[in-house]
């Protein structure tokens, strides 16, 4: 017993000393004593005096940097809004800038070995498999059908009910419910029913939201050791995270077991498709949960920003309606996929909204080896290197002197939509990790936008509202987007079957 007690004492003593040593090394690398103006403003939070959001302060610093790059010594983070640097990081020197172990550790409990949390061969395998599935015509038709069904059976009835009662509706909450229903059906073949008329409490959605939020908050800790020790002791936010992930796991495992029992022949969802080639249930869970995270909040965030901007630009709403009528004529149905391809102004308006308010505001990598960016910035090995999509959309040297203005016309040449360089417009990322779900996300945004614009007038409760973002993986507006819906006279019909995509 004395030997066991002595061993336990030595073990825990070593653990504590190692933890203290790790924290000291971490603090030394961050240089918290840095006396530069940027680091002092960050540590003292004095930036809050002039800026509503941290991303706006970052934008200010990057706009005033000659190179479009800023070094936050206290964070060990080099942040850039320079397109040449971005291309260097995510294409030219792709292998030197992986997601990295620090990022994987933050999301490891939630995403496991999913595609957004791994590098190397595991990423390549999932990327190849996902590219094959998401690129097929059948899966796109399936997704389009799911979107239309959710609009026809839930979104339109909900908005009509709110309009009839003249109730204030949080459009951000509606979009989050809409996208969660869709991505669950698309990923799992599960319908959580979050957008039913009563707007029910959805336990799975709450657990997933909690797991996402708490995982993101790990990045705000003074040191990774803080949340790691809390996880070891199972206390505070780490205990909440563990409970939330447990609920997510139970549902995912239940869906996998059920599908194995009933068979996969008549199922089109991603889980069923992946199960034909993967037998590891934990791996399946990680892959599908990753798609759930990517497809839920990003679309909802993009739609929320789009309708907030439209509330300030009624002329854009009128232009979209005119284009819709020009393409569809007197038809009372929502446009088909092929008809949407002809709506260049709508496409431009959505891209312009995403330029100013990207759902994911920044993306970080970790340098494997010492490197020098095209603007001359030295990046030491192990340094976090971040490109800031939110700031990039507001850089005068990138978008011109009118970069802060909402102008869909900047995307049009002779009335035809012309895409921008992906290293300049990085909303869907670029290089080898470019977003595989880009087209599906844009189709969902366009279809929802057309359904609402054609059938309703949307009046923001506070037209002068300035978005205040909640820290997290995606841009979520604190307080939501309260609106009053006004139903237009003509009725709406929805395509039950999509044309070929």
3D structure, described in words:
- With 501 residues, the protein is an alpha+beta fold.
- Helices cover 55% and strands 8% of the residues.
- The protein has helices at 2-30, 37-44, 54-63, 83-92, 101-111, 120-134, 137-165, 171-187, 203-217, 224-233, 236-262, 270-275, 281-310, 314-328, 337-340, 344-356, 389-392, 396-399, 438-455, and strands spanning 69-72, 77-80, 168-170, 363-366, 371-372, 378-379, 384-387, 412-413, 416-417, 456-460, 469-470, 476-477, 482-487.
- A 4-stranded mixed beta sheet has the order 1-2-7-4, sandwiched between helices. Strands 3-13-10 form a 3-stranded antiparallel beta sheet.
- Helix 5 runs antiparallel to helix 9 (203-217), helix 7 packs parallel to helix 19 and helix 8 runs antiparallel to helix 13 (281-310).
- The longest helix is centred in the middle third of the chain and has 30 residues, at 281-310.
- In total, the number of strands is 13
Please count the helical segments.
19
First-last Cα distance: 71 Å
Q: Which bin fits the share of residues in helices?
A: 40-55%
Output the keywords:
single chain; 501 residues; alpha+beta; 13 strands; 55% helix; globular; disordered C terminus; oxidoreductase activity, acting on paired donors, with incorporation or reduction of molecular oxygen; oxidoreductase; monooxygenase
């Amino acid at each position: 017993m004395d030997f066991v007690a002595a061993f336990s004492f030595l073990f825990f003593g070593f653990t504590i000393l190692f933890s203290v040593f790790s924290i000291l090394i971490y603090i030394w690398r961050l240089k918290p004593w840095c006396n530069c103006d940027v680091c002092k403003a960050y540590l003292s939070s004095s930036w809050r005096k002039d800026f509503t959001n941290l991303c706006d302060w970052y934008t200010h610093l990057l706009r005033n940097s000659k190179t479009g790059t800023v070094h936050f010594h206290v964070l060990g983070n080099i942040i850039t809004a320079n397109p040449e640097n971005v291309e260097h990081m995510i294409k030219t020197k792709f292998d030197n800038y992986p997601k990295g172990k620090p990022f994987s550790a933050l999301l490891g409990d939630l995403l496991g070995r999913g595609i957004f949390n791994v590098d190397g061969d595991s990423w390549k395998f999932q990327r190849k498999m996902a590219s094959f599935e998401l690129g097929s015509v059948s899966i796109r038709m399936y997704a389009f059908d799911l979107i239309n069904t959710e609009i026809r059976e839930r979104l339109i009835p909900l908005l009509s009910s709110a309009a009839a009662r003249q109730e204030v509706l949080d459009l951000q909450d509606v979009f989050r419910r809409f996208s969660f229903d869709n991505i669950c059906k698309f990923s799992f073949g599960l319908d959580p029913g979050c957008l039913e008329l009563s707007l029910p409490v959805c336990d799975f959605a709450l657990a997933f939201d909690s797991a996402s939020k708490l995982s993101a908050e790990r990045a705000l800790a003074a040191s990774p050791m803080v949340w790691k020790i809390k996880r070891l002791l199972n206390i505070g936010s780490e205990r909440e995270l563990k409970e939330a992930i447990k609920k997510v796991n139970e549902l995912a495992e239940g869906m996998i077991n059920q599908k194995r029992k009933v068979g996969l022949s008549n199922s089109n969802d991603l889980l069923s498709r992946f199960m034909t080639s993967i037998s590891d249930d934990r791996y399946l869970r990680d892959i599908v949960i990753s798609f759930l995270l990517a497809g839920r909040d990003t679309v909802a965030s993009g739609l929320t920003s789009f309708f907030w901007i439209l509330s300030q630009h009624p002329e854009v709403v009128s232009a979209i309606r005119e284009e819709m009528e020009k393409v569809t004529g007197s038809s009372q149905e929502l446009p088909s996929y092929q008809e949407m391809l002809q709506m260049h102004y709508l496409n431009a308006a959505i891209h312009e909204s995403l330029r100013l308010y990207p759902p994911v505001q920044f993306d970080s990598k970790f340098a494997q080896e010492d490197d020098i960016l095209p603007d001359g910035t030295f990046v030491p090995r192990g340094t976090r290197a971040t490109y800031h999509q939110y700031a990039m959309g507001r850089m005068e040297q990138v978008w011109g002197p009118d970069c802060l203005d909402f102008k869909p016309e900047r995307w049009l040449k002779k009335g035809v939509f012309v895409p921008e360089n992906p290293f300049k417009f990085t909303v869907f990322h670029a290089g080898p990790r470019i977003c595989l779900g880009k087209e599906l996300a844009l189709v969902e945004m366009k279809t929802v936008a057309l359904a609402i614009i054609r059938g309703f007038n949307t009046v923001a409760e506070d037209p002068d509202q300035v978005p205040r973002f909640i820290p997290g993986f995606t841009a979520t507006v604190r307080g939501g987007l309260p609106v009053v819906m006004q139903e237009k006279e003509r009725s709406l019909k929805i395509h039950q079957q999509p044309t070929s995509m």
